[in-house]
Amino acid sequence: MADGTNAMLVGARRSTPATGPASWRADGSWLLAAVAAAFTVAQLILVGPGLGLGWDETVYVSQISAQAPPAFFSAPRARGVSLLVAPVTSWSTSTELLRVYLAVLSGLGLHLALRVWRCFFPPGVLAAAGALFASLWVTLFYGPAAMPNLWVAFGALACVGCFLRARADRGDRAALWGVAAGAALMAWMRPTDAVWTALPLLLVLIATRDGRPALPLLGGLATGGGQWIIEAYLSHGGLGQRLSEASRIQGGLGWHMAVDDQLRSLVGRTLCRPCTGATPDPVIMAWWFALPVLAAAGLAVAVGARRTTPTLLPLACAATAAAPYLFMIEYAAPRFLLPVYLLLAIPVADALYHLVTTPDGRLRATAAGVLAVGLAGHLAVQYVVLDRAVDRTAADRRDWTRTAADLHRLGVRPPCLLTGTEAIPVAYYTGCASANPRGHNVSTTEEGIARTAGRVPTAALSPPGGPPPPYARGWRTHPSAGLDLHLAPSPAGDGTR
After folding, report:
1. Which of 169, 341, 361, 496 is spaced 20 to 30 Å from 255 by Cα?
2. Structure confidence at residue 352 (pLDDT)
């Protein structure tokens, strides 16, 4: 490659011992392992394994779970998370065990994704990139979560790094497998995100007519995307219908300026829909505005060092991955941009490394001191936002636990059916099936609910003080934690209520 990437890759290989503990120490792998281990430990301490499952998590987990019947699986969702958690959820209902499993797995995922890049950047830069990404409140919050976006991020970083390695060294067969694995991980988690993220890679292949990495990349995308497309025809009336339904659920994809929505979500809002309220304090937003500036500085460093491609390509993938979430939907969730943040992390860390060191590797004491103060302030802000997000989220999920206990006390026990407001997560906590005749999760009709109520315990949930759904008029009402529970008459032969 013209910018020296090939020579850098070969030189890095020649200078690194082949195997053994000495190699692990010499090539800086211990730094990456330390960052990954710290990431796992921080999740378990700052988020905690006791945090209950959220709404989306209950949908993914319930697909392969001993806790409750599968919840309705709407058009935008993909099966990757359900498969990821299946080794635990298929036999255990312990949320604590699931959180620990995901925390350890996400630490391993970060480590492997960073290792791919050892041929292009010094270990210190990669370790700093991992630490910067892992210290964000949104990364820590979703590390032990049964959600797809962090895994798209790991797949994206590994895929881009292996793509660069495969193009720089035609003898690197492991890199081709890495391209396929990274693309497959993205596609199984979120097929549309995988396509947006891989778009620059596909353009490079077209422009250079290099077919060697094409098969692994397209094959990896096809594994997850193919399953999603097949399911579209089996359960959603075809691919066009599924895409249309997914767009409707997300508010109608098109030109929507969501940058301000993303800014409002930085205060710890896991979902900003509708995204109203004041813009956060500048201290909370500072890191977000610093990212593109530092990424551009990282690109300038790479150009000056004649190694442009390993910096430019992840920046291009970050830009295409961000585009739909900044300009095509009318709401925000901070997790949507996790792949963007990880792809930007290495160029940002490279810029900071060159800011605090001289060309001969000596430390610039003043610059290092200023950076240390800035990073300390950044970490403090991230901790405060994370702490508030965890407290707020835990309170909501404790309410679902109390509602489930109330339903059990009132005789609504498996097999049972819940419908109405927040029926999906509460049903999971209760061990019931869930169904709704309207909204984004339509899976039955009012007549279907009435028939089911004649067979199993059934309850409709509504906001406190509001009217019950039309099909639940005449059902007995009981207040619970932030909800009213409308209980259907006991099925024939059931004297529990």
Report:
1. 341
2. 96
Per-residue pLDDT tens for 260-304?
999 999 999 999 888 888 889 999 999 999 999 999 999 999 999
Write out pLDDT tens, residues 126-143: 999 999 999 999 999 999
Provide the pLDDT for residue 251: 80
* pLDDT score at 273: 85
433, 424 contact by CB (below 8 A): no
**Going by C-beta distance under 8 Å and a sequence separation of 6 or more, which residues neighbour residue 119?**
8, 9, 12, 13, 165, 168
Distance CA 441, CA 313 (A): 38
- Helix H or strand E segment including 477: strand 476-479
DSSP string, 261-286: HHHHHTTT-S-BSS--SPPPPHHHHH
Beta-carbon contacts of residue 66 (< 8 Å; ≥ 6 apart): 89, 90, 91, 92, 93
CA distance 415 to 435: 13
Rg, the chain, Cα only? 25
**Beta-sheet strand order (sheet of 458-462):** 433-434, 417-420, 458-462, 484-487, 476-479
Q: Could you give the CA distance from residue 179 to residue 164 in angstroms, rounded to a whole number?
A: 9
Q: Which residue has the tokens 């984004």?
A: 440
| Chain centroid offset of residue 83 CA | 15
CB-CB contact of 70 with 62 (8 Å): yes
Q: How far is the C-alpha of 479 from the C-alpha of 356, rounded, in Å? A: 60
Query: What is the pLDDT confidence band of residue 14, given thresholds at 50, 70 and 90?
Result: very low
Instruction: Pick the more confident residue, 28 or 12.
Output: 28
Binning pLDDT at 50, 70 and 90, where does residue 358 land? confident
Give the separation between CA 450 and CA 438, rounded to whole angstroms: 15
Query: 486: which DSSP letter?
Result: E
| Percent of residues, the chain, with pLDDT higher than 90 | 82
pLDDT digits 0-9 by tens, 223-253: 989 999 999 999 999 999 999 999 988 888 8
SS3 476: strand
User: What residues contact residue 171 under an 8 Å CB cut-off, 6+ apart?
Assistant: none
Amino acid at 436: N
CB atoms within 10 A of CB 409: 11
